[in-house]
Amino acid sequence: SLFGVRARDAAPPPLEPPLARLKLLTAEHCAAKRWHRRHGAVLTSQQPLAQMRAALREADAADPPLRLAEARALRTRLEQAEAWLRAAEASLVEAKELRELQELQREAEVLRLQAPEVAALRARVAASKRWMARVHADLLRRTSSRGKASAKLTEAEAEALVREAAELHLRAEETELVRARLSEAAAWKAEVGAALGATSAVGVEALQQMERLHARGEQELNLALNELGVLEARVGESHRWIESAKAALEGSSCREPAELVALMGDGRRLGLALPEMQQLAQSLKESEWAEQAQAAVDEATTLEVLEALSEQAEHQPTGRVSALAEALAAKVARGREWSAKLEREMAEEDRTSLRDAAAMVSEVEAAKLKLPKLGKLREWVARAKAWQDSARKVQAKQTRGASQKP
Q1: What predicted TM-score, i.e. pTM, was given to this entire model?
Q2: How many angstroms separate the Cα of 74 from the Cα of each of 6, 33, 52, 60?
Q3: Residue scoring higher pLDDT (202 or 374)
Q4: If you ran DSSP here, which 8-state letter would residue 4 be given?
């Protein structure tokens, strides 16, 4: 050998270029297989960022570094996942719409990212969906579309919905609608308070205003408001009173005055100034007049009372009291006739006979009249009868004494 080097100590001859290339490829292939065995799950399942970074660090640390398509795809996935995390963190500061949150959730699923932020976003999307569903079902949906068993939200619950949207960092037009509904409810409550607290009596217009407020609160606000129950009770009680009043007016001829008085008392308690109140007052006045007039017709009554009641009959509804008014007028006419007759009889010097006087007293009493001269005539008749009885007794004694003489 040249320069004293033996053949067995000499370095192996250099490989031909194709053989060197094959050996390099074989080594890379073995390294890639080992990398796949250790990190294959990172490529196919949800993994945290740490696992992705560890797999990439190993691929970069290989000698030579692994130049795998999977590693390149994983690097792209890692970059996208890191960008996703930055977007997720930003969504916690800046309010997002539900569709934007759902898009973030879909991106996390595509990236197969396993991270607390993904779980938090999933819970946030679910809570936002429930929030939207509750707002639409319990507050914004029209009353006619609501289920009968669906309970209305209270103001406190509606305010809690606004706070919940802020806590979820949810940007939705429904939030403004809820705020607007609460403002409408506040204005409505002020109107109801003014309507219920009014010092003036409740007339037709005021009652109609209460009905409109009740319909508006029931159909448009969709909130469980205490004032709604109070208003419903007030309107319902007023309508029940109106029905009772109308029934009483329709059958007032057979109603006791006490019933009408009780109805009017209920109307005053409710603060009502409706036409039915005036009609009841007129009906009560008529009933009282009819009661007095009937008593005047059926019982002994002075001519002054009869005449006063007869004059009042002109102001009563003629259809109801015409028969009683006629009977009263007839008794007034008889009373005037007898009054004039008694005046003449008592004024004449040549007075009538006892029999005629007694007959007049009987006729006046039968006519159930109390006349000023009747008392004097009755007294005169009584004295005359007493004198007549005394005279008869004296005459009888004289007759017996005369018959006993010889």
Answers
A1: 0.61
A2: 53, 16, 7, 12
A3: 202
A4: G
